[in-house]
Amino acid sequence: MNIDKLSKRLETVSNYIISNSTFADIGSDHAYLPCYAIKNGLAKSAIAGEIVEGPYQSALQQVKEAKLENNISVRKGDGLEVIEANEVDCITIAGMGGGLITSILQKGADRLEGVKRLILQPNIGAHHIRNWCVQNNWELIAEVIIEEDEKIYEILVASKIQTNEFYKLTDASLLLGPFLMKEKNNVFKKKWTEELKQWKTILEKMNKAENPDKISERKEQLEKNILLVEEVLK
Questions:
Q1: Could you tell me the CATH number of the domain that includes residue 78?
Q2: Which residues neighbour 100 within 8 Å (Cβ) at sequence distance 6 or greater?
């Protein structure tokens, strides 16, 4: 992967960047996505944010080599600390767990002022992001599920709700994704068939546990999730 040829997952993320926008890529990893987006006219400017010194220096070097210093600002900081309110139209966060992504969004909530779109690619735990969207007035407008190098990724795109309308998702939509469960493509079926298999194995072990009371809540949630997924996969 380089600034001319992104991975399939990052290219999918790039497809949803708002045209002619200024966007921030949080956890930018060599600034591949910002460099690609600027070189291909997907955005007018970008901020590449990194918290760790090594990746921060790599991003600086990459932007310098691409001669894109006038379009891309590389900044070191924790999550959304690298941007100011009303500075960007769009934020991308890719390659982290869903729990960490929601933590970054929650911690930097005051920096989301003026942001119109979030493009989020969790490696695991996409349901955490959907829950956060519902609780914070962001509406999912697109979802994609892809497989690359034998790994399955979900890309979630959310838009800020400007009215007082109440945004709600069903339990199945929170877990599986409203767009993904409607499309139900082969990658989706593969992911959730494998999840079901693992969950049933865990449930079987729980049923044999010596102290079932201690795990009753987790067991109940697992049984509920199994029923939700089985219903959607029918």
A1: 3.40.50.150
A2: none
CA 210, 214, 217 angle in degrees (round to 5)? 125
Cα(30)–Cα(109) distance, rounded to whole angstroms?
25
**180, part of any domain:** no
- 55: tokens are 């990746």
Q: Specify the pairing of strand 90-96 against strand 43-50.
A: unpaired
Q: Which residues pair with 122 in a beta bridge?
A: 96
Structure tokens given for 174: 């929170």
Q: pLDDT tens for residues 15-37?
A: 999 999 999 999 998 999 999 99
Contacts of 20 (CB under 8 A, 6+ apart): 43, 44
Check: pTM over 0.90? Answer yes or no. Answer: yes
Q: Let me know whether 71 and 153 are in one domain.
A: yes
Query: For residues 6 and 14, what is the distance between their CA atoms, to the nearest angstrom?
Result: 9
Q: Domain containing 159: what range?
A: 8-170
Q: Which residues pair with 76 in a beta bridge?
A: 50
CA distance 40 to 62: 16
